[in-house]
Design brief:
Blueprint lengths: L1 H16 L5 H11 L5 H13 L3 E4 L7 E4 L6 E5 L5 E4 L21 E4 L10
Parallel strand pairs: 3-5
Antiparallel strand pairs: 1-2, 3-4
Helix pairs in contact: 1-2, 1-3, 2-3
The protein binds zinc ion (2 copies).
Amino acid sequence: MRNTRQKQAIRDAFERAGRPLSTEEVHGDAARASRGLGMATVYRSIRSLLDDGWLSVVEVPGRSPLYEIAGKGHHHHFSCTACARVYELEGCASVSAELPRGFTASGHELTFYGVCAACSPKAR
Ligand SMILES: [Zn+2]
Ligand SMILES: [Zn+2]
């Protein structure tokens, strides 16, 4: 029962955020709803939600993995270099790359870097 409630607190954290979260961010948010929630439990619950197919891994180069709710369509991410939050971008940027003769691409991965609106000097 306890496990179920903790897993629910972690699911809620992802649903509230609407963007990929690191283990630390999940812990920070879920620990407010579920008192005494430890990092080890967060790791275990994330592992279990990955096994359930509810979460998927988001790889951002140079960072520890983040997680997002699985089953979304093809999309990209924006990584803020100021606050380290990662945001989900709608749809696909037009990507153009010259493929060598005889090569066929079956997909691509793309991460944008920069400063988010909250960290932008203009927003202050
Ligand atoms: Zn930011
Ligand atoms: Zn794309």
